[in-house]
Batch of 4 targets.
Target 1
Amino acid sequence: MILKNKYNQAMDHIVVTSEMETRILRKLSTAAMDAPVLRKRNIVAYTRKLAIAACFLVLVIGGSYIHRITELPISPPVATVNNQQVFDSYEELSESVEYEVKAPSIFSTENSETSYRLFNQTFVEITYISDQNTINYRMDKGVMDISGDYNVYTEISEIPIDEWSVECRGDQDGYRLAVWNDGEYSYAISSELPISIVEIADMIRSIQ
């Protein structure tokens, strides 16, 4: 009771002037305005921390995923060569083709290494490799250039050989390619070394 009386007496002696009242109100107003700013700054700081944490998490997960990918075994590419089939003899090749295969008989298989290949069931390729030269013979159904030779030659001639019109391509040293067709099948003979028209004619005439 005594303390209360003393408090009331002290309060009676406190005088608040108009100037003091103005300063107090201004400070209260400033404090009220600063409160939302402080809250906003706290929110921005929290958002930045959250974004940094999310980025760190993405880096950790991504790095782990990349590491797992690099550890996966790499399978070698599968090589496909147009359904290629390789045979040991002319007879085996002929039995696997739907039409009658014709090939030059002028080449001696005893004096050369001969390979027999079939592509896509109809494209025949026979290669004769000897000490003197390498000759490649091709046959396929249809009328087209099946040589596969896209070199530019300076010498191109249409040569009649028996009932066929043969296009021979080469240069000043001789011919390296001959292509022709019989209206149903296409043929091609290519030579690694230059050969003459006579040699080409002998090869074509020996086809049977």
Target 2
Amino acid sequence: MHPILFKIGNFSIYSYGVVIACSIFVVSSLILRQGKKEGFSEEEFFNLIFLVVIIGLLGARLLHIMVHLAYYLRHPIEIIAIRHGGLAIQGGVIFGLLAAILFLRRRKLPILKTLDIFALYFPLAQAIGRIGCFLNGCCYGKEINFFLSVRFPFDNASRHPTQLYYSVSNFSIFLILFFLYRQRKNL
């Protein structure tokens, strides 16, 4: 695990944040490129991606706060302390999806065609993001004595590196979807 990538003075740059930012950048670029190939306006698609990312991050934070509401009621200032962690992917997906649908309806753009493009690249975003989880040392698996186990520093126990399992499985899903998407006219 390597939660802190580097420091600038007293300011820490966290691996998780850097990996998530890279994931957002890479996947947003690929979605934008695919949207252009499919005949969408680059400006319209950029605006949609920007909206989905912002609302998705807010939704991820909101769900995390709701799940741990008792803690945040006792420590309300921590609500804005995102550097201490606290995103729930389910909230990001739900809120991002709702924002996308509302945007697409308002702009009278094809919802299913657009969501197909986003769905194609979502597993890639997850695959990259889970590497951030591994570097951060979160989202780990059960303690086990197994040749693939990894020692996590918080308790020095050998555990399943579930983050890496998720990363590999999501990347595999992405490859399958990418192949099927390219072959869709022949299906």
Target 3
Amino acid sequence: VLSRIDYDHEAYLGRTLALIAAEKAAIIRSGVAFAALQEPDVEQVLIRRAAEVGVPLASEGRHLHVTARGFTLDGQRLDLAGPGWRLEDVHCRLLGVFQPGNVLLAAAAARELGAPDEAIRRGLATVDWPGRFQILRRDPIMILDGAHNPGGARALAASLRAYFPGSALTLVIGISADKDQTGILAALAPLASRLILTAYRGPRSAPPDGLRAHLPSSNARVEVAGSLREALALAMAEPRTPIICVAGSLYLVGEALACCQREAHSM
């Protein structure tokens, strides 16, 4: 199963999407391969690899199809279809405009492995994915999303626009030093009315002050916090903050989860 391939770990996988795709396509060896909607050059790499090893390739947009019926903060309803099968009005708890494609791949792979349709429906209705467009609290709304590469940041930005159009956003962001800080901030900073630059605990985190140099032109108010705890306190102190989003690193999101869980236990 190959989800959408984008730039990440370039030092190990390659500097172009085609090279990254070639590395990831090596997982196609036997059975049936399922692939998300891809850039054209990535799709061609997957098609060639599947043909070389004689593995059928079912791709979103060609053989697999998903239609979104609608969404709320409690989940989304989808119609899923593949060659010879269809699942209508499937409820999935996962949020985000990028998740329908993931749900489609999961359902297609599960059917290939012999899972009954009812089991697939139950699984999708109860699945949980911490740290990926996760709504941690609702008053104010706090969203956690790893978004540790430009592709993930663009997906988060599209989801924020779709779920909260026109809402003021406080973005708490920390990024690893070896990640594409410019690309991540270019995708997310324009959405924010307030930016709080911070760092997670650990040597890989980029210094918050250093993130300033990677910010695109924006009307957002920019603040710096030396720790995530300080950043969250700043974000929560603002009166009438409708939406807080913590993003930029899975390490940062993990720290936010632990911090909020400790606070919940102490109440």
Target 4
Amino acid sequence: MTTEKVSRWNFTSGTTGKSKMIPQDEYYVEKIFILKEALLHDVYPQLNPMQSELRDHCNSQLRKGGGGISVKAATALDDYITRDMIIYSSPSAAFMIGTEYEASNIYLLFTLRDKNVGSVSVTFVSLFVDVMKFLESN
């Protein structure tokens, strides 16, 4: 749980069992990004922090829960976090796209032109497989 005011409830996909609800405070996403970057550089020290990253992401739609608190998928991003998305090869507005097909097209459009992509980040491997199949067929 969190000692901060809950700004959103995140629900997990349920791939490891029943879907769970996780409270999120306003600093949750920043903490996750910092932890991810630290782990990435620990495991892959050859990556350069100036390299961009392909992130394939489809943003879920916002719902309102009890008490007016937002409810989204745990992987969904809020508008306020887009200022921190400079490490990715696509513009931050791309991460607000809510359909997988359109989002993947935008990510590929920018990533395939970026010579400095050093890593790939996806929520689920199946999304990346779909992107690769799309790339093969077009």
